[in-house]
Amino acid sequence: MSLTEIYLYPHAIDFRKSFRGLSAIVECELDHNPFSGHLYVFTNKRRNKIKCIFWENNGFVLYYKSLEEDKFIWPKGEKELMTLSGQQINWLLDGLDISAMKGHKKFHYEHVFQLFLRQSLV
Asked: Would the pTM count as exceeding 0.90?
């Protein structure tokens, strides 16, 4: 399986929806192609369930996770569809707050001497 994009749908949905209802949201509301192979992530009002859907070759794959006593930490204030990394979806499914998770700052150097110069100034 090779997912090209992961999208987090910001609004709660009716969890009686099957892959048909979810793919209709992807196509009609988001104006995306549900057959693209992208992963779409949905939750319910209580934030204790997650459904993910994607198209794989010849059919839809539906992933469903239900928590017994906890809630998923959904990004607050997000009104738009949010793109996630593979690491972020794993954090979300593990119960972590993806908006609080930040890694080290990334640096880009053109030459080794830029790094050495930066380190000598510190």
From this structure: no
**What string of DSSP letters covers 48-105?**
-EEEEEEEETTEEEEEEEE-SS----PPTT--S-EEE-HHHHHHHHTT--TTT---PP
Query: Residue 43 forms beta bridges with which residues?
Result: 12, 50
Q: How far is residue 102's CA from residue 28's CA, in Å, rounded to a whole number? A: 33
CA dihedral 13, 18, 22, 25 (to 10 degrees): -80
Query: Cβ distance 52 to 63 under 8 Å?
Result: yes
Question: What is the C-alpha separation between 70 and 118, in angstroms, rounded?
Answer: 46
pLDDT one-digit tens code per residue, 76-112: 776 789 999 888 899 899 888 887 766 667 777 776 6
Tell me whether strands 39-43 and 6-12 are parallel, antiparallel or unpaired.
parallel
Q: How many residues does the chain have?
A: 122
